# Entry
Amino acid sequence: MNTKFSDILSEFLKGEGMKQKDFAYKIGVSPSQVSEWLKDKATPNYHTLKRICLAFNISADMLKAKQDR
# Structure
């Protein structure tokens, strides 16, 4: 089964108790960009994925593993 990025991001945001706007500023993107990801209308590029991993203090492997479950 392949979990959508939007579901993974939503799970992390809820787990951290973080609002979309705060998360967007933390990783240097617009709040509307985060909204597009959560609506499954777009996905982040490689460099933004790296910033997401840093923001949640996770490895890219962990993020990938969540997608593959």
About this structure: The chain has a mean pLDDT of 89. Residues 5 and 23 are 15 Å apart (CA to CA). The helical segments are 5-16, 20-27, 31-38, 46-56, 60-68.
